[in-house]
Each structure stands twice: as C-alpha cells, then as structure tokens.
Amino acid sequence: MRFMIIVPGGAETEGGAMPTERQLADMTAYNEAMLAAGVFVTGEGLHPTSRGARVHYTPDGAVTVTDGPFTEAKEIVAGFSIIDVSSKEEAIEWLRKWPRSTADDFTLELRQVFDDADFGEAFTPELQEREARMREQAARAAAQG
User: Fold this and answer.
1) Which of its termini does the chain have fewer beta carbons within 10 Å around, N or C?
2) Does residue 87 sit in the same domain as residue 139?
3) What is the domain range of residue 53?
C-alpha cells in the first residue's frame, strides 16, 4: 500500500524560509531510515504558492489561470513523501517518527494512494497496459535527467 504524507505549510514556508541545517539533517536521517526499511518511495519540498498557479475549469469549457500566492487558501502544502508499507497502521508508525525539529506545532496528513485494483473493471486491461507504458517512459526520462 502506498501512502502520501502531506506536509503542511504556513507563514514561514509561504514567506520562502528555507529549512535549517539541523532540519535538513533530521529529514535526511528520517528518509534514510525509511529507505533502509524499504518503505521510502520519494519525497520533495514545494516552493511557496507565490511561485505557483491555479487552473480552474468550468462546465462551459472556460479555463482560468490564477498566479499565486493563494492567500485565501486555508491549508497550504509545503511538501510530501510517498511511502510503500503493508498497512495504514505501519504508515502511522512512520509518521510517529517524523523529525520534531521541522516545526514546533504541526499536523501531518496521511492519504492512501490508489492502486490499479482500486479502479475495478473500469480500468480495463488496455488502459492498464497504456498506464504501464506511460510510467515506464516517465521513469526512463527521469533517469536520463
């Protein structure tokens, strides 16, 4: 089972504050522990919303692009990790080990990632094959840099 750990943002991350050396070292050690346990898939930090955009689609086909920052957003995502574990309980155990140096008071969100089987019959063998080809191509492109 794959899970996404969603890391919240706030005034500091939205202001462009970068992590300290200790925070980076603690997160690296945490990610290394997950890698050694065979559960770490990937993890990344995100730039502030001021460097992003939102794209809104309406039923009539209109597309509206709004550049950040998104000051009206109640919850900002500052980063994420993807882990592959055997259960939600195992994922929660990894969250319990999250480095406390990253913030004084914070909440992580845990969300399960859909697997192919979750889509049922709608995910036909033809679509599964196309998806597999696309993922292989994306992996090759990423490996080439």
Assistant:
1) C
2) no
3) 2-113
